[in-house]
Design brief:
The strands form five sheets. A seven-stranded mixed beta sheet has the order 14-26-25-24-15-22-23, with helices on both faces. The chain has five domains: 7-89, Alpha-Beta Plaits (2-Layer Sandwich); 94-230 and 347-405 and 699-735, no CATH class; 239-330, Calcium-transporting ATPase, cytoplasmic transduction domain A (Distorted Sandwich); 420-447 and 569-673, HAD superfamily/HAD-like (Rossmann fold, 3-Layer(aba) Sandwich); 451-566, 3-Layer(aba) Sandwich (Calcium-transporting ATPase, cytoplasmic domain N), CATH 3.40.1110. α6 (177-197) packs antiparallel against α7 and α12 runs parallel beside α26 (717-735). It is elongated, with a radius of gyration of 33 Å. It is an alpha+beta fold. The chain is built from 27 helices and 26 strands. The model is unreliable at 1-14, 126-131 and 747-752 (pLDDT under 50). β25, α24 (660-664) and β26 (668-670) form a beta-alpha-beta unit.
């Protein structure tokens, strides 16, 4: 007897959960995405399914015992779309589809020229008479010839519209192709009836409608491919193969393995010209890596022993031995792809509002066409069907749900090429509406590469110089804060790691410092206010370090060591601040550093509103005050102490080298660490948001004018076909204006 549990009795721990990326093709609009997601999520065994329209990829998680990947792919194909595992490219399928689309366009264009030639005499003599130039027999012959030429257009060129419409109706969904198909079929069938029963025919209109719509969609496809190019390139960066050492360092023989099987601590050989398959650290070798597509850095980055390497970067000239630290879906590249895909899939509030009403708009149009036909049947029955067709054809819902995502994809792609990673699409609208830009100091306006200039031993300290430095190093090495890293770097050459003090109860306080216990005595390394909470002493600060960033090592008895550090201002900080002020932005500098240091940096950058000595709670409160006054705040920060205020801001920006907690709470990652790229991002966001509003305004205005004109009988069916196609094309081409923006200077120089 079979002792296996029934499928519905299996719990999650007994089921093997798998995850896979899928390459999709054939998606044309937001309705396609919604349909695929809805149907696949209904499949038994599918845990999650998310389509990323910008990269035409989807990620699916499923229970292997309940459903297979093949069944999931077949379900997508049954809906009328192409689907392949991520290991297989859809390029061949897309090339075949593009070739077929060109043939459809050619057939429609050739037929349109022929039918227009046959229709020309009818336009000259609209009402044929026996004694006129166009006899009834010749008129009928020309109509039959036009009908015969139109049949291949209906049966071949227009087939994608019919297939899509049938798919939508079968799935109880009204998409854009439903009214399009209805308009084409009604025009053709009514013209066939008029051919034999007598009356006006519009074969030329039906063919022109198909031709213009096919041409517009071909252009839309090209534009969409261009706008999502940066996103697609990122998804293809991870190499599929890697060279792994068999027994490093005893043997230098390597084996070629699939990159998906690599594990942390694997030792890899990355030859010149190869892509780095993992996030890791260089163990041996010297080279330079091209990291432009991940960080926006236009110049190769030098790599040697101890340097970190990023998955997807290209090793340029020397062989590197790399120890893997993060592999597969845990790499920085995978995280960037997921965040970019998620951002591209999201929509600003304005776009969501338009999408929400797009389906209702289509239903309204079909209802308006039916009512108008009924009314006109009472007024002039010969015109009723043509007016209904004109109403269906003239409407343009595509601008509401197709052209706007094109602007979003273009904006996200442009920003990605310049090292600005948009993790939440809502940030685009917030950036465009920003009134105040709040900067942190250390690691944001400054390089964040602090250097210790002076180390002053406190006279009352009971610890010897070497003991004090070892304690400071032990504490500093436990933190990722720029000040702590600088102290650890300064002290590392003078301490013996094997003789490090044992610490317990290590605790880092954001914006203050780090505390630990050693030999039952508490030690702190951090700001003066933080460390002096341990004792009542207050050693005066020497004048030589009065304008430097200060950090103190103290215990419960007294101060021990005082560190004076300096940080260089970013070379583009002054230029960016000046440009932001010229565009009307209010600049605020909030820092946890000493007031004297903050005032000095503010004077260099010409920032009037600068405040120092702030805790994370102080920053949070000040941003709340700005927002309460009606400000839309962009917060740019780096480090743990910026996490709360980044989460509060309307749009938050984390520097690429910042602490992980600040990055996870941010809407934008400035991977290039260049403030000029942030300024460019604001320009792109403002332009993109303006284009979105222009597209939506045009769609609303066009329909407000065209629909009443069609209902009134002013617009003929061929006018409707031309207007609908041109309206669709206008909003798509309008999105391309985003590419007219001047690139940042560093990017232009790199290209030239």
């Amino acid at each position: 007897m079979d002792n296996a549990l029934p499928v519905d009795k299996l719990n999650d721990t007994q089921l093997q959960v798998k995850q896979e990326h899928i390459n999709l093709s054939g998606m044309r609009c937001a309705a396609c995405v919604q349909l695929i997601e809805y149907r696949i999520r209904q499949l038994s065994g599918v845990l999650s399914f998310k389509v990323h329209p910008a990269s035409h990829r989807a990620v699916v998680r499923w229970k292997a015992e309940l459903i297979s990947l093949k069944q999931i792919l077949n379900a997508i194909i049954d809906l009328g779309y192409g689907a392949l595992p991520s290991s297989m490219s859809v390029d061949a399928f897309e090339q075949k589809e593009n070739k077929l689309a060109l043939w459809r366009l050619f057939v429609a264009g050739f037929a349109m020229m022929q039918v227009m030639m046959y229709a020309f005499p009818a336009y000259l003599v609209p009402v044929p008479q026996i004694d006129g130039d166009l006899t009834p027999d010749v008129d009928r012959l020309l109509k039959i010839a036009s009908m015969i030429i139109t049949i291949p257009v209906i049966g071949f060129s227009a087939m994608p519209f019919f297939q899509s419409a049938w798919r939508d109706l079968k799935n109880r969904h009204i998409g854009m192709d439903v009214p399009v198909s209805l308009g084409i079929l009604l025009t053709f069938m009514a013209s066939v009836w008029s051919t034999f029963a007598g009356g006006v025919v519009y074969f030329d209109t039906a063919i022109m409608f198909v031709f213009l719509l096919l041409g517009a969609r071909l252009i839309e496809s090209k534009v969409q491919k261009r706008t999502s190019a940066a996103l697609r390139i990122l998804t293809q960066l991870t190499p599929s193969l890697a060279q792994r050492f068999l027994d490093f360092p005893r043997h230098r023989a390597t084996e070629i393995v699939d990159a998906s099987v690599l594990q942390p601590d694997d030792m890899l050989l990355v030859a010149a010209g190869e892509q780095v398959p993992v996030d890791g650290v260089v163990v041996a070798g010297e080279s330079a890596c091209d990291e432009a597509l991940m960080t926006g850095e236009s110049l190769p980055v030098t790599k040697c022993a101890g340097s970190n390497v990023i998955a997807g970067s290209v090793n340029i000239y020397g062989a590197l031995t790399v120890k893997a630290q993060a592999t597969g879906g845990q790499t920085q590249l995978s995280a960037l792809i997921d965040m970019m895909d998620s951002a591209a899939a999201e929509k600003p509030a304005l776009v969501l509002l338009a999408d929400r009403h797009a389906s209702r708009f289509l239903l309204f149009i079909l209802l308006a066409a039916a009512v108008s036909a009924a009314v006109w049947w009472q007024i002039d029955a010969t015109r009723a069907i043509w007016i209904a067709i004109s109403i269906v054809v003239v409407t343009c819902p595509c601008a509401l749900s197709l052209a706007t995502p094109g602007v979003m994809s273009a904006a996200i792609g442009m920003l990605a090429r310049n090292g600005v990673l948009l993790t939440k699409a809502r940030a685009l609208q917030a950036m465009a509406q920003t009134t105040h830009v709040v900067f942190d100091k250390t690691g944001t306006l400054t390089m964040g590469k602090l250097q210790v200039n002076e180390v002053i031993a406190m006279p009352s300290s009971v610890l010897g110089g070497m003991q004090a430095e070892m304690m400071a190093f032990a504490l500093a090495s436990r933190s990722t804060h720029p000040v702590a890293r600088a102290i650890a770097y300064h002290l590392q050459s003078g301490v013996d790691v094997s003789d490090m003090p044992e610490l317990s109860g290590v605790c880092e306080v954001p914006g203050a410092g780090i505390e630990a216990t050693c030999n039952d005595r508490r030690y702190r390394l951090g700001s003066l206010a933080f460390v002096r909470e341990l004792h009542a002493g207050c050693y005066p600060i020497p004048a030589s370090v009065s304008e430097q960033t200060l950090a103190m090592l103290s215990n419960e008895d007294d101060d021990i060591l005082l560190f004076g550090l300096n940080d260089a201002l970013r070379e583009d900080a002054i230029e960016v601040i000046q440009h932001l002020k010229r565009t009307g932005k209010k600049i605020v500098l909030l820092s946890g550093d000493r007031a004297e240091v903050v005032v000095k940096v503010a004077a260099q950058c010409d920032i009037q509103d600068a405040r120092g000595g702030l805790s994370p709670a102080d920053k949070h409160h000040l941003v709340q005050q700005l927002q309460a006054g009606g400000a839309t705040v962009m917060m740019v920060g780096d480090g743990m102490n910026d996490g709360p205020v980044l989460a509060l801001a309307n749009v938050s920006v984390a520097m690429g080298q910042g602490a992980p907690i600040s990055q996870t709470r941010s809407d934008i990652l400035l991977m290039s660490n260049r403030l000029l790229d942030l300024d460019f991002a604001l320009t792109v966001a403002t332009s993109a948001y303006r284009l979105i509003k222009e597209n939506l305004a045009w769609a609303v205005l066009y329909n407000l004018l065209a629909i009443p004109a069609a209902i009134a009988g002013i617009i003929e069916p061929w006018h409707a076909a031309l207007g609908m196609s041109l309206s669709s094309l206008i909003v798509v081409l309008n999105a391309l204006r985003l590419y007219l923006l001047p690139q940042p200077q560093h990017f232009t120089q790199a290209k030239t």
